[in-house]
Design a protein that fits this description.
The chain is of the alpha+beta class. Helix 2 packs parallel to helix 3 (62-71) and helix 14 packs antiparallel against helix 15 (489-521).
C-alpha cells in the first residue's frame, strides 16, 4: 500500500511537515491542504486513497469538512482518519457521525500512524474489491438468467454486450460469429447499435480476429495505431477513436465459434486483470448460450419429441456450464455437498485452501475437513439443512487441510438446495484477519491499562504535592502580611511573585485533583430535583464581595425562584464558581457580570456573562480543552487552563451541554443546560 495517495489536511505547517516526513519514506504519495475548503477542492482532483484530517482548524473544522467530503459523490468513498488532541467523546462521536472512518489521538507514534493508515487502506481496498466482485457476479447472474429464460439469440447476445459495456469503460463491445472456412464473420450484437444482427465482415480487415483464431487465446492490443499487428489496416483504423482492443475467443468444445471484441480509448494499461477475468467468464458463458440457442433454432422444425429431448439437454448443459463457470472462477472457496456431506463439486479456490487435487477432494467428506472442536456442531447443522429444520447460515469454523494443518474460515450457506439435492457452501480463509483482530484487541487493552496507570499516577503525584505546596504558599502569604515592613522593595516584589505563583500552583493542583476525581469516579452524581436558584445564590453570596473589591458590578438577572432541574448541587456550585470566578478574573474594573437562568424546552439554561476582553472565535471550541489558554495581551496568563474542562465534564455527566458565545472586545457569555426531569 506504500504507493497510495494521501491528502494531509492541517492548518499548522509543522504538523503537516511531521506527517509528510513520516509518510514519504514509507513510499506514500503526499499532497497537503491548509484548511477544509482547500481539502475539498484537492480531494476531487488529486483523488487520494486516504485523507488525514486535523479536527480543529480555522474556517470550517475537520468535522464539517468530513461531512462535505462524504456528501460529494466524487469523494464520498475516500476514507478519512481524524487527527485530534480533543478528549471530548461527544466530538469524536460527531466526527464519526459526519463520516470519519477512524481517529488518531495526538500525540501519536510513527508506528501507530502507519498501522492505522495501512489498516484503513486495506479495508478500503477489500471493500472495493468485494463491491466490484459482487457487481461482476450480479451481472453474470443477470446474463445467466437471460440465457436460461430466452431462446432469442439476438436478444441474448445484445444483453451480454450491453452488460459488459455497462460494467467496463469501453466505447464498443461486439459479439462476432466467425466462419473461418469462408474467411468472414458476422456481427451478431453491438453495445452501441442494438439494430445490428448478422452484419458481414471480412476477416482480412481484422488481423486481431485472425490472430485469436490462430492462437485460441485472448489478445490485448494497446496503442493499436502503432502496434505491428495492425500495420496492414492502419489507414482504415486511423481516426476511429479507438486506442486499444481486447479480443476473446468464444470457444465451444475446443472450437472457436466466435469472438468477443471490446474497444476502448484507453491506450496504456487498457484492461485490468479483473476486467480480463470478467470478460473471459462472460465469453465462456456466451459460448454455451450461443451454441445452445443456435442448436435450438436448427432443431425447431424437427418433431416434438426431438425438440423436447433437445430442450432437456440444453437446459442441463446450460445449468452445468453456468454452475461450473461461476463456481470455478469464484475467489471464495465453494463446494456443493450432497445430503451425506460428500462434495459433488469443489472449485479451485477451495482446492488451493485445502491442499487437495480435484480427484482427491471428491473422495473426502465434510467430516474430513472439519477440526475436532467444531465437527459435531457443523455436521448437526448440515443434517438440519436437509431435514428442513432451522440452521445457521453464517459461522466461523476451523478447517484442516490435507497436511492436517488447521486454519480459520468464515462459512456461508445458501438458502436453498441446488437442484433440490445439494447444499452450496462458501468459505473464506480468515486466519490472518482474526489474528490481526486479536492483536488489535490486546493492543487496545494495553493502551487502556496504560491510560488508567497514567491517571493513577497523576492523582497520586498531585495529591502528594498538595500539602507541601499549600504550606509554602501559606508561609509566603503570612510572611508578606506580617513582616512586609522589614523587607526591601525588591524583596517585597519577590515575595509578591512567590505568593502569586503559589496561588496559581494551588489552583492548578486543586483543579488537577478535581479532574482526576471526575475521571476516576466516571461521572457519579448525587442527583436530585431542586431549585436552580439555590446554588446560584450560594456562589453569588461568596463571590459578590470579591467582585466588588475588584471594581465590578455583579447581578442576578431574571432567575426564576421556582425553576427546578435535576442536578448534583455540589457539582453545579463548582461549575458556577469556575464560571463566575473566570468572569471576575478577566473583566477589567468598571465592568459588569450577569447571572441568568431560564427554561428552554426540556432543559434549564444558566448563563454567566461579562463585559471583559472576549474570546476570539477560533478558541470557542478549544477553550474547553485541557490546559487551553488564550494568548494574553496584557500581562501573564491567568488560571490553570483546567477549570472549563472540569465544568464541561461535569455538565456532560448531567447529560447537558456547555458552550460560549463571545467576540473580541464584546465580552463573553458561558452557558450550560441541565435536564428538567432525568432524575426519574
Amino acid at each position: 500500500m506504500g504507493s497510495a495517495r494521501i491528502l494531509i489536511v492541517d492548518d499548522q505547517v509543522y504538523a503537516r511537515k511531521v506527517l509528510s516526513d513520516a509518510l514519504l519514506p514509507a513510499g506514500f504519495l503526499v499532497q497537503e491542504a491548509v484548511d477544509g475548503e482547500e481539502s475539498c477542492s484537492l480531494a476531487a482532483t488529486f483523488r487520494p486513497e486516504l485523507i488525514l484530517m486535523d479536527m480543529i482548524m480555522p474556517g470550517i473544522d475537520g468535522i464539517e469538512t468530513c461531512r462535505r467530503l462524504k456528501a460529494n459523490p466524487l469523494t464520498a468513498s475516500i476514507p478519512v482518519i481524524v487527527l485530534t488532541a480533543v478528549k471530548d467523546k461527544d466530538k469524536l462521536v460527531e466526527a464519526f457521525a459526519a463520516g470519519a472512518d477512524d481517529y488518531l489521538s495526538k500525540p501519536f507514534s510513527y508506528h501507530e500512524l502507519l498501522a492505522r493508515i495501512n489498516s484503513t487502506l486495506a479495508k478500503r481496498e477489500a471493500a472495493e474489491m468485494l463491491r466490484q466482485d459482487v457487481k461482476d457476479k450480479e451481472i453474470l447472474l443477470e446474463i445467466s438468467q437471460a440465457i436460461t429464460s430466452s431462446l432469442d439469440t439476438h436478444r441474448i447476445l445484445q444483453i451480454i454486450v450491453e452488460k459488459i459495456a455497462g460494467n467496463i469503460d469501453v466505447l464498443r463491445c461486439s459479439m462476432v460469429r466467425v466462419k473461418e472456412e469462408d474467411n468472414c464473420g458476422y456481427v451478431l450484437a453491438s453495445s452501441d447499435n442494438d439494430g445490428i444482427d448478422g452484419l458481414r465482415i471480412e476477416l482480412d480487415l481484422y488481423p486481431e480476429i485472425r490472430e485469436v483464431l490462430r492462437t485460441g487465446k485472448a489478445l490485448v492490443l494497446e496503442d493499436i495505431k502503432n502496434h505491428p499487428l495492425m500495420e496492414e489496416v492502419r489507414e482504415r483504423i486511423y481516426g476511429l477513436g479507438f486506442d486499444s482492443i481486447l479480443v476473446l475467443p468464444v470457444i465451444y468444445r475446443s472450437e472457436v465459434i466466435g469472438t468477443l471484441m471490446l474497444r476502448t480509448a484507453r491506450a496504456a494499461k487498457s484492461f485490468t486483470a479483473r476486467e480480463l477475468e470478467f470478460c473471459e467468464l462472460v465469453a465462456n458463458v456466451s459460448a454455451a448460450a450461443l451454441k445452445n440457442a443456435l442448436l435450438y433454432e436448427l432443431a425447431r422444425d424437427e418433431s416434438q419429441e426431438l425438440r423436447e429431448v433437445k430442450m432437456r439437454l440444453e437446459e442441463e448443459l446450460a445449468e452445468k456450464a453456468l454452475f461450473e463457470t461461476l463456481f470455478e472462477h469464484a475467489s471464495n472457496g465453494l463446494m456443493a455437498l450432497n445430503s451425506s456431506g460428500e462434495p459433488v463439486y469443489i472449485n479451485r479456490s477451495a482446492l488451493a485452501m485445502l491442499g487437495y487435487t480435484r480427484n482427491e477432494a471428491l473422495d473426502i467428506s465434510l467430516a474430513d475437513i472439519l477440526s475436532a472442536e467444531c465437527r459435531q456442531y457443523a455436521l448437526e447443522n448440515h443434517l438440519k439443512f436437509f431435514a428442513g429444520h432451522d440452521y445457521w447460515r453464517r459461522s466461523d469454523l476451523v478447517f484442516v487441510n490435507k497436511n492436517e494443518e488447521p486454519f480459520q474460515v468464515s462459512v456461508s450457506l445458501s438458502d436453498h438446495r441446488l437442484a433440490g439435492r445439494f447444499l452450496i457452501v462458501s468459505f473464506t480463509d480468515v486466519t490472518e484477519e482474526r489474528h490481526v483482530k486479536q492483536q488489535l484487541t490486546v493492543a487496545n487493552e494495553r493502551l487502556q491499562d496504560l491510560d488508567r496507570l497514567k491517571s493513577r499516577f497523576i492523582r497520586t503525584a498531585t495529591h502528594e504535592l498538595r500539602i507541601p505546596v499549600n504550606i509554602m504558599y501559606s508561609y509566603c502569604a503570612l510572611l508578606g502580611e506580617s513582616d512586609a515592613g522589614n523587607l526591601t522593595e525588591t524583596q517585597r516584589q519577590y515575595l509578591k511573585s512567590a505568593v502569586e505563583s503559589g496561588e496559581r500552583l494551588v489552583d492548578l493542583i486543586d483543579n488537577m485533583l478535581d479532574l482526576a476525581r471526575i475521571e476516576h469516579e466516571g461521572g457519579k452524581l448525587s442527583l436530585g430535583e431542586q431549585r436552580i436558584v439555590e446554588p446560584i445564590r450560594d456562589v453569588y453570596s461568596v463571590l459578590a464581595p470579591y467582585a466588588e473589591q475588584n471594581g465590578l458590578h455583579i447581578s442576578m438577572d431574571s432567575v426564576d425562584d421556582g425553576l427546578s432541574a435535576c442536578f448534583d448541587s455540589a457539582q453545579i456550585q463548582c461549575v458556577l464558581t469556575n464560571l463566575i470566578g473566570n468572569a471576575i478574573k478577566f473583566t477589567p474594573p468598571g465592568g459588569n457580570i450577569g447571572i441568568s437562568a431560564g427554561q428552554h424546552g426540556e432543559h434549564v439554561r444558566v448563563t454567566v456573562s461579562d463585559t471583559g476582553a472576549g474570546i476570539p472565535e477560533e478558541y470557542h471550541d478549544r477553550i474547553f480543552d485541557e490546559f487551553c489558554q488564550i494568548e494574553a495581551t496584557n500581562g501573564p496568563r491567568k488560571g490553570s487552563g483546567l477549570g472549563l474542562t472540569i465544568c464541561k465534564r461535569i455538565i456532560a455527566a448531567h447529560k447537558g451541554n456547555m458552550w460560549v458565545t463571545s467576540a473580541p472586545q464584546q465580552g463573553s457569555a458561558f452557558s450550560f443546560t441541565l435536564p428538567v426531569s432525568s432524575c426519574h
